[in-house]
Amino acid sequence: MSQQPRVVGIAGSLRDHSYTRLSVERTLREAGRRGARTELLDLREYDLPVYDGDADEPGDAAGLAAAVRAADSVVLGTPSYHGSYSSVLKTALDYCGFDEFEDTTVGLLCVAGGSFPTTPLEHLRSVCRALNAWVVPHQAGIPGVSGKFEDGELIDEGLAERVDVLGRRVVEYANIEPDPRCAEAIQNKGAGG
């Protein structure tokens, strides 16, 4: 890869001691070891009111969108909430669109208190495909998360490897040429081109 890719991670959790944030940070560390410039977009630091298309001043939405738009790859991390992804991540994604995600590589990560978080990962994959992003086939899910961390570190070796592989893949595929647009994106009136 001739150019150093830029990888941003978005932690879709506002908790102080967030397993989601810790997991996204680990993914970004691995991406950094693979030569990427990385940045965590910590949603606790953004003023993002619930999306209202008529709002004149949507807080820090422009800054968030600009950071995502500048990325070659984006890691989306979320806790599993009621079988889907978090509302704070949904709000952040509502402020982004085709300008931010089209032809961008996206890696998905989800933590869950219970069983493997398949459904939230599927929901995020659908959203990203509709925005013409290229979603990495590999994804990282961390079930039973509270028992998988100790002193801020992921201690389950198998899960740690999945998270690390995600970091490698978002660098490896940062400049992949995406497939033609999916049906959802073609029919979406917001899609450019």
UniProtKB/TrEMBL annotation:
Cofactor(s) needed by this chain: [4Fe-4S] cluster
**Transmembrane segments annotated in the record for this chain:** none
Q: Which InterPro entries match?
A: Flavoprotein-like_sf (IPR029039), FMN_Rdtase-like_dom (IPR005025), NAD(P)H-dep_reductase (IPR050712)
Task: List the protein's name.
Answer: FMN reductase
Q: What does UniProt list as this organism's lineage?
A: Archaea, Methanobacteriati, Methanobacteriota, Stenosarchaea group, Halobacteria
Q: Which GO terms describe its cellular component?
A: cytosol
Give the domain of life.
Archaea
**Residue ranges of domain NADPH-dependent FMN reductase-like in the record:** 5-142
Which GO MF terms does the UniProt record name?
FMN binding; oxidoreductase activity
